[in-house]
What we know:
The protein has 12 helices and 16 strands. The protein is of the alpha/beta class. It has one domain (5-449). A 7-stranded mixed sheet has the order 8-12-3-13-14-6-15, with helices on both faces. α5 runs parallel beside α9, α8 packs antiparallel against α9 and α9 runs parallel beside α11. The model is unreliable at 1-11, 31-39, 200-208 and 257-274 (pLDDT under 50).
Amino acid sequence: MKANLNHIDRRRFLRGSGIALALPLFGSLATSKACANGATDNPKRLGCFYFPDGVPMPLPEDPAYQEWAWFPHGNGSEFEFTKCMEPLEQLKSDLTVLSGFSHINARDVHGHNNADQFLTGAATGGGDREYSNSISLDQEYAKHVGDQTRFASLVMSTDGGTGTARGTHTISFDRNGRPIPAEHRPKQIFDQLFVKSDGDSSRRLAMSRSALDDMLSDARSLRKTLSASDRKNLDEYLDSVRQAEVKVEKAKRWLDAPLPQLDGDPLNLELTTDEPREYLRTMFDLIYLAFKTDSTRVATYQIGRENGVGRSDHLARAVGFNLAHQLSHETKNPGGWKNFGVYCQFLNEEYGRLIAKLKATPEPAGTGSMLDNSLLLFGSASSAFHLSRNYPLILAGGKHMGFKHGQYLNHAGMNFQGGPWLGKREPWQDEAKGEDMPLSNLYVTMLQRLGVTTNAFADSTGIVANV
């Protein structure tokens, strides 16, 4: 039996003058075969997010430890967030915080060299070691689900492109270990995901009105064929796209800003303090919309480049500071841990907004919420100052895949390294106080729950059974 291509296309796109806008799936427009079988299978999505420079790690005897240490206090289901994590308090039951995990091949390497390894676990190394990489977690999953959506994966970063070896601007690597260029321009991401156009029509629309305005008559026609629930979903979706479109326009000023000078001179951005927050929020919103329209089921976003190079270092201006990387160097100063913690609090707040939006959105043409069917990993490849051990990690969503949350898997216990850098040896140069678990074990577990038949990834030695 041949599929009705017009019906499928109509379900997926609204059309205007030479352009088309991707739509979410609607249960009331599911094919008769799907209806006969009950509900269609829920999609399984993967989102991976990376932030640089580690996190606040004051020692227990430091007065700042109780309030500004990044990791929670406690273990299992009995744990308390510090002020760094306060924005995630209402989402406690939807996430798991992990400590005591790192990649075996990275533990004795300077922390700024390890963003390349975060999703690969490869021995990219440092110093004079020859550089090579391997496939990243997201691309391993994309091999299995990429043909089911318009885009196999969405690769994003704040700085864009690929960067350099051990100074990456992307956390996605193909099966040959080659970096996949990341897109950093919200307008290009928006158009790529949601708008198919010919050159003349897009130029006309750019000069006249919003892309959505030209599609409203088509939307009104489509609404007549939908159930009451799907009509509500359509209206909410169009409103979300409209809001994203407005944010993209606002974010253009950020994209036109020059890259910072490598000599450390301050960057003169014509931006208000709130615009970096708007940029980060827009990038998260674009991932939300990409998932909601089933344009892709795999997304990565590198929030910042390591070592304070690139425009991403200026995201700290959202909370009143100049350079994000500098905050990790100034923790020995009065109020230094708090300043670093406030920046991490900002990142957690925006990540939490994405989790909350997915949780509040019913699965289009499926069951549960979008968060139940989306597995999100948020973390960094260093914890204390340049320390490539005990990665700070937050795993969220995926309850329909068997993940149980509301816990802190404190494998590090009190055997962690930290404290401010006083200008001498750095924590990564010291002998480890404890034995980390292979982070690749978590990746094997994630892949298995996502439906991939595998027992190994990178340097894994098993799985993590208690997530």
